[in-house]
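=== Structural record ===
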Amino acid sequence: MASEDPERARSRGKTYPPTYYSPSYMVESAETMWTSWLVPMIVVANVCMFIAIMFVNDCPKKNLGFEGACVAKFLGRLSFQPLRENPLFGPSSSTLEKLGALEWSKVVHGHQGWRLISCIWLHAGVIHLLANMLSLVFIGIRLEQQFGFVRVGAIYLMSGIGGSILSCLFIQRSISVGASGALFGFLGAMLSELLTNWTIYTNKAAAIFTLVIIIVINLAVGILPHVDNFAHIGGFLTGFLLGFIFLLRPQFGWLERRNLPVDARAKSKYTVYQYVFWLVALVLLIVGFTVGLVMLFRGENANDSCSWCHYLSCVPTSRWNCNN
């Protein structure tokens, strides 16, 4: 799961040196605030999908009783698997696998590349679903209001796919589901948006410090067993690059050029470093996706090229091991 983003100052709070400043030039930003509808629709779609999963799961009929009785039997065929089998109050792994969970062998040998996308819409249980959807509401709605549904939707979907690719390259003996990769993409995009639009924000140090702490804490949770941190990392890196591409803001001097003196007006809509970030991010994104997909469909195991990378997703302790 991911966490709420820090409070960030808007460009309307930007102040200029005394030469350029006068009360008549401090006007409201001309940026458009969008109405958020895509993120709520994604939440509804995930909830409906989970209900459909539980309907197909049909614990009362299919549970053999080896792990105990179904939980919340009053829900009928929507009741959950025994907690010893699934402590997140959800379906069986076989149901998730049948409905599109990410599984290396089926993607590579079964030619089911669609699982790179379908797994984003599946969740392992009620707890998993609530954690992800609450994070999506807190982060996604604000991003959509600022940047619109097209850019936010593209970041969500592509980050989810990026997380699926990295997960599939490193985790090849178990299934993976969840929207966490897409949510970490939002965190990555927020960080790159702050960096590429650095000049229009106040309280920069506090904003970036808070955001980095949130990211580090969430990635640290991923080293626990049964958490797919490779999906988190892949989604974060994809979203980080996409933020440089999709979330550029014009310079303050460009937005308010009609209200500023001639010598204070920006001559270009974006700064040089914004263009550089955009180009580098685009190249890295294309190269990363190309290399990742080629390695994946050739059946390569990324652990063979990085003997220590498995520690990024699970660190063994005296309380648990990471063999599965």
